Amino acid sequence: MENTELLCEILPSVTPRADIINGLLAQLDDEQDSDRRAEIIRKLGEYPEPQVIKKLWDLRNNLENESDDFVQYEIKLSLHKAATQKVLTPIGIDFFLDNLEVFQSKDNNSQAPKVLIDAALIEEFLLRNQTTLNREAARVMGLVLEGKINPYIGEMGLIKIWHNIKNLKSREDANRSIIELLSKINVGQVNLKEIDLEKYPNVNLKTAIQVEIARKYSLAGIITIRDREFIASGYPFVGSPALFLQSLGKDTSPASIERTLKNLGKAAMENEKVKLNQLLENEPQQNLFFEDNLLLFQGWKIENFEILCANNNLTAATVILCNTKTQERYTESAFKKGSVDALCTAFNEALAHLVEVKHTLKSIYLANLTPGQEGDTTVKAVVEYDGKEVITIHTHENILKAYFFAYVKAMIAVYAPKEYHPDIHSTKELTYLHKIGERDFHGLNFSQVNLMDGEANLSDAKLMGCNFSKANLLEVNLTNADLTGADLSHANLSKANLTGANLTDVKLDENNLTLLDGTILTNTIMPEINIEISGESRLEKVGQLLKHIDPQSQSRILAVHSMTDCIWWDNPLGQKFWEVNKELIKRGISIQRVFILPEVPTPKHLQVIQEQLNCGIEVACICHEKAKNVEEGYRWDDTNLLISENLSVPRNSFTARRTMNGQTESGYISYQTRVVETDKSIFNALWEKSEKLSTQANIQEQLANLST
After folding, report:
1. Residues whose CB is less than 8 angstroms from the CB of residue 611 and which lie 6 or more positions away in sequence, other chains included
2. Model-level pTM greater than 0.85?
3. Which candidate, 567, 550, 552, places its Cα nearest to that of 601?
4. How far apart are CA 400 and CA 408, in angstroms?
């Protein structure tokens, strides 16, 4: 009853709403009794007012100060109610902008450098997974949270963050994020009418506003992932998170941060120069070089081309070819309904002066179109010549040039293959094409692409002969992809899914281990590789490969295990491998194992054998002296062998061997057909001469005549 009386004292019917709230807040600050605090907090949740939400948020951030679990529960519940219930309209970003004086920190006396943090950077921090960009955003925001940066954000940026979080998650998540941001970051506001846009003829409005905020609040600089957009703004103190952190180094003191921001403009220019020099040095045959010269072959170049559209729905295209030595020229025109058709036809007519035109254009189409007026366009052309297909790709901001240059490259590849220099295609080009359902990329160069941060889906793709050297294919979906003859040397294939893929004749680097490093290889047609690998890493990779066996593939495991010196199955590695064995049996995969035993097996030997028999493994045993005679001159008492035989996809079968020579261990994992067949024949010979054991009989009696 005490709680009811308390509320009656605070909430007389004649008290205005503001007085009620102020009374509740004052009472809450003074109240120590947990039950009364819970009652007041519950009542506050009915008032979606700025000061109430701010108070509840502060309590939510300091839950550890509330010893009573019920009070903690009421804080969370009331904050949810106050931040989500409707008054006239649902609480949204306008509510917070109209009440900035309540939500903004009033005790901001920070002497740290004032920096505008781009909203897109904050979004990366709030929403993205651990990508490279997110890690950089997290480091910048870490400096904010440590008080080494006094952060600002533009009002438009705050609005954008709220809407994006609301669309991706919920209105409540968006409101909570804004409350948290407003408690840490200052909102910079400018009147658009006061901005002289004539000062910013070459930048967009969003960039101009951010520069004006930086100048109005005397900020030390701007950190943004859109740093290139500020180049034409005339504002020098702008840098990307990567450039800022790189320039900052290990000294993260406020003085060092301010000094770094002052030098960002100069550092950015130097960075762009380095990138351009690297482009010209490492990629002389890339699109930039091709478009500047428009070289064709045999000393000819495309001197000019143009498109004219008329009102009669016909398009006129003209192409001029010029010999760079003799200055001889051929000019041809064509009239078609479509611009691309007209341009390619005119080019064919001009090309006929140089070669006998025998190719067929099978397809030429757009792979992507970035929304808006600006953006790159990727076009793929497929040409058939002499029974073979030639594929070329070109990316350009001009859609007609993208079509035309892709076609011109195909003509060079067809009629002058020795003069054709394939482009190194970008990650975007590969993903754009795959997203629209295109699966044929055979023969293209994708070396050094990075698919780690994208959707990384190349399932069912035709990648025969493609160059993926040094590519980052981490966790890429390559199920049922045909990689016959592809170059995978030094590619990162860790955790990639190669289920059903064809890896015949692929090129790998020296050790080939990358192919087995967490890669899913279910029913994969494997290359003829043999990997020298010993110790724990060999066993781990064998275990990984066994886990990927498809139960539908009619696979079986054939194994030889020597137990002449010690009981290996009791150590941690042995126990881990035994768990893999039991899982295989549960999945219906048969295991046959020959144990090579000493002349007088110990009870521990019998225990291991009994356990494997009980689990469902077919077991046979042979004395180590008898085992020596199976293959003349070979000591089987020092050897372990495992063969994974895939009866559905024989090229997915592999063998693994460990051999001890004194204290020296050697071993391999091999997909070479010859090695697999050799090891399998040795196993069969051992199995034939071994004593087959049964769970129905006494093992000790079955092994009594083992050495005779």
Report:
1. none
2. no
3. 567
4. 12
